[in-house]
UniProtKB/TrEMBL annotation:
Residues 45-135 form the Methyltransferase type domain. One of its GO terms (molecular function) is methyltransferase activity. One of its GO terms (biological process) is methylation. Pfam families: Methyltransf_11. Keywords: Methyltransferase, Transferase. InterPro entries: Methyltransf_11 (IPR013216), SAM-dependent_MTases_sf (IPR029063). This is Class I SAM-dependent methyltransferase. It comes from Actinophytocola glycyrrhizae. Gene3D superfamilies: Vaccinia Virus protein VP39. It comes from the Bacteria.
Amino acid sequence: MTSTEQGRRKYDALADRYEEIYFYVADLGQELVSHAAPPPGARVLDVGAGRGAVARAALAAGCAVTAVDASAGMVARLAADHPELVVRQQDAGTLAFPGGSFDVVTAGFLVQVLTEPEAALAEFHRVLAPEGVVALSLERQTVGRLGWLHDLNREFFGAGTSDDPLSPDGLDELLTGAGFTAPARALVKVPKNVANPAALWDWLALQGVPEVLDTLPSQDAVAFRERFFRGAEDMHRNGGITLEFAATLHTATRP
């Protein structure tokens, strides 16, 4: 499978606030389309479209855009917000389009969350016309000055998954393995300044941190919150609070 029912439910729940939580997706959607450089009139398929960051940028570039997502909630919101798009609920690994239907396939921050990215890349290759371009963005893990928060999360909630994240080199290898040629990539950074510790807490609250704290013993939940605000205050006093985000943008060609 390329996406799980658990993943679909997660994104259904996030549909209303997705671009508030993931503040960088709009900027990176524009960057990904610019990196792919589709000509006006190009037939673009945006896979894992979410709330439409990449699809909106492709529309603005004069492209004819079809957007698909596995999440029913995302699809409903995207179709309502952008009636000018063709929007369908589909899984990345089983696209319901004939071969050679598109000139460009885009996928913003999708391949890293798929259980079988190879299946999705094979579908991207199939639905692209000869000389078509695939354009993907891949999240780069950055800690920077928020190391104290990562350490705090590990202490209270554990290290999380032991699986190694997909690397830029690994994605390029998957692209060539799927039959694409001429892989190229660029690094993009999108920092976001946060006004104060309370604003950082509010951003975490959008991601459900208070609900997760409710699963801890009450004394641990209180300790987490107290130490969070001490760490955030220290960061605020010493250079300000900045959320640091980076991504690699990947393109390759279907021969």
